[in-house]
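Appendix B. Worked example

We walk through a single record from start to finish. Start with the input: the chain for LSM2-LSM8 complex subunit LSM8, Mycena chlorophos, length 95.
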Amino acid sequence: MSSLQGYVDRRVLMMLQDGRVIVGVMAGFDQKSNVVLSDSKERIYSMEEGVEEVPLGLYLVKGDMIVLIGELDEAVDQAVDLTTIRAEPIPPIRY
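Next comes the structure step. The output line below is what the pipeline stores for this chain.
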């Protein structure tokens, strides 16, 4: 839990168990690693159309759904033209 403290008030990217990718500013977290993101967007990957960003606003992610979380370098992220990126959607994790 304490390892998430360094991400508070920073832009992060999360990959979830169902294959979704969420980007937002970490507003807070709790002892079960549930995370609150502000100004969040879901990035939807496609081989045909590039990356689509769907605004979500304030968003709560259950801790047991998070597969990966990392800080984004905002300057690098803004310099990338997401419409030119083609990628297969990430499949959900199966147990």
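Two observations about the output. The chain is about 5% helix and 45% strand. The two ends are 24 Å apart (CA to CA).
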